[in-house]
Design brief:
Helix content: 40-55%
CATH topology of the largest domain: Tetrahydropterin Synthase, Chain A
Oligomer: single chain
Number of strands: 8
CATH superfamily of the largest domain: Elongation factor Ts, dimerisation domain
CATH architecture of the largest domain: 2-Layer Sandwich
CATH class of the largest domain: Alpha Beta
Mean pLDDT: 94
Length: 274
């Protein structure tokens, strides 16, 4: 069967694959359009399999908030190079994946990938298609949901960092944005000191003890000094105890209590590309 330029162009428009790849797919499929689409998807799967050892450390990190402001998602669609991450088509692809996640609220990356991307293919299939089109390893690097009485999503300029913050009651857009920007800029590891993972606490204490000993302090003082350094870590690295970036005379907790006495943060997810 003769393969026409119109056939090749039609396949390119639907799949985004290169002209020569589309021509070969149609030739291998004897002009069967659907079989050619499958051929290109399989080619994408092959490319993906060949690139499993590659690092996908670039990408697009997005936060999306539901219309009623009670739920937000944070998702990272990763690729290998900054060049691809800044491509408008790739950003649009990441936006679509984020919108699907917000709409369907899957509980995991695996559930997100199993959802329909459109009426024809799943999200996972679309990733394979994109791998075939772009030639890089592409995957979902992070996905999480935040639920609260009110949530806000914030995307730092450049799409490399996003946060979702949940509050225990309704707040103004200004308050929500200020706390989200604080979370983005100051990289808290937890909301409050009681939320810090024990592994992190143990590591900070060990580092504090070793540095204290290296400074020549007496052994009987090491534990006390290490605890002091741990408290400094809590102040610097937990959201409610951090200095509020707009007014460093206040902590974030004090800022929120100044807005409303029992106002606090109940949920926080932050993800940044390294």
């Amino acid at each position: 069967m003769a393969i026409t330029a119109a056939d090749v162009n039609k396949l390119r428009q639907q799949t985004g694959a290169g002209m020569m790849d589309c021509k070969k797919a149609l030739e291998e499929s004897n002009g069967d359009f659907e079989a050619a689409v499958d051929y290109l998807r399989k080619k994408g799967a092959k490319v993906a399999a060949n690139r499993q050892d590659r690092d996908a450390k670039e990408g697009v990190v997005l936060a999306k908030t539901s219309a009623d402001k009670t739920l937000a998602i944070v998702v990272s669609v990763n690729c290998e190079t900054d060049f691809v991450a800044k491509n408008a088509d790739f950003i649009a692809f990441a936006e679509t994946v984020a919108n699907i996640a917000l709409d369907k609220k899957p509980n995991s990356i695996e559930e997100l990938k199993a959802l329909p991307y459109n009426s024809e293919i799943t999200v996972a299939d679309k990733f394979m298609e994109q791998v075939g089109k772009i030639g890089e390893k592409i995957d979902i690097g992070f996905y999480n949901i935040v639920k609260a009485e009110q949530v806000v999503g914030y995307i730092h300029p450049g799409n490399r960092l996003a946060v979702a913050v949940g509050f225990n009651k309704k707040v103004s857009d200004e308050v929500a944005k200020n706390v989200a920007m604080q979370s983005a800029a100051m990289a808290p590891v937890a909301i409050d000191k009681d939320d810090v993972d024990q592994t992190i606490i143990n590591r900070e204490l060990e580092i504090a003890k070793e540095t204290t000993r290296a400074e020549g302090k007496p052994e009987e003082m090491v534990e006390k000094i290490a605890m002091g350094k741990l408290n400094k870590f809590y102040k610097d690295s937990t959201l409610l105890n951090q200095e509020y970036f707009i007014d460093n005379k206040l902590t974030v907790r004090q800022y929120l209590q100044g807005v409303e006495k029992d106002l606090t943060v109940t949920a926080l997810k932050r993800y940044a590309l390294s």
